[in-house]
Design brief:
about 80 residues; Transposase; mainly alpha; elongated
């Protein structure tokens, strides 16, 4: 099952979460908590992907040209 696209109104909160995760990864690496750093990296990748989705306009409707239907007369 696919997760719903992120809410554009939550972009600032997602950026805050990403920034916090970056700081926590750095702290975990400094302290030698490699397992913790790895887990935080997974969360960081998820937050960054959600931000990329928002930046790409994921979930917005786009217009697709389908052309004009034509008929082929009797042959």
């Amino acid at each position: 099952m696919l997760a719903p696209p992120p809410d554009p109104a939550q972009r600032a909160r997602l950026a805050e979460i990403r920034d916090n995760l970056i700081a926590r990864v750095a702290e975990a690496e400094t302290e030698g908590w490699l397992g913790e750093a790895e887990g935080l990296q997974v969360s960081l990748a998820g937050a960054e992907e959600k931000l990329r989705q928002l930046d790409r306009g994921h979930g917005q409707h786009t217009v697709v040209g389908l052309g004009i239907p034509t008929t082929h007369g009797d042959r």
